[in-house]
Structure formats: C-alpha cells, structure tokens
Amino acid sequence: MTTAQASPRHPHGQHPQAPGYAAHKADHLARLNKIEGQIRGISRMVTDDRYCIDVLTQISAASRALQEVALGLLDDHVRGCVTDAARTEAAQAEEKFAELSNTLRRALRL
Fold first, then answer.
1. What angle do CA 14, 20, 25 make, to 5 degrees?
2. Tens digit of pLDDT for each residue in 11-65?
3. CA quadruple 59, 107, 82, 16: dihedral positive or negative?
C-alpha cells in the first residue's frame, strides 16, 4: 500500500473484528465530546471579540487534547491491531507495520 492510498474500508466503517480501541472507546468519545465543547467555546470567544492571547491559549489546549486522543488511539492500535497481526501472519504483520510507519510519518509533518 502506498502512502497515497487510503486504508481499506469495511462496510459501514466496521472491521470484521472489534477495532483496537474498542476497550477504550467510551474514554475516547468522552474526550472528543469535551474537545467539541472546547471548540464551541473558542468560537464563542471569537464571536465575543475576546483577547487574542486568551483565544490562542484555548486553541493550544484543544490541540493538545486532540493530540492526547490521537496518542491513545495509536497506543490502542499498536497494542491491539499491530500486535495481533505480528502474532498471526508475517505478511499481515508487515502490512500493519508499514501502515503504522506511514501514519507516523504523516503525523510528524507538523
């Protein structure tokens, strides 16, 4: 799979087995809901013409919160999907390692 290709999708976004983050899904959703509230708050700050530095501080906090969700998902992926693939079949493991490498490469282009 090249970096330009998207990962394969399953019907309705579901994998044949539970995704690697299934055990922490509620935690991830709770964090994302909180971040959604933060973003709405930032929007209100801009609407209310709040001080630039205060808005930037809140944007930074929301960005860090999203990064924490991403790191949690990455950890779940490595501990679940990648580890399972490494235990089962060499070709599947190689595919998961390449996918992980490409994902990290994209994520580190800040």
1. 80
2. 334 455 667 888 899 999 999 999 999 999 999 999 999 999 999 999 999 999 9
3. positive
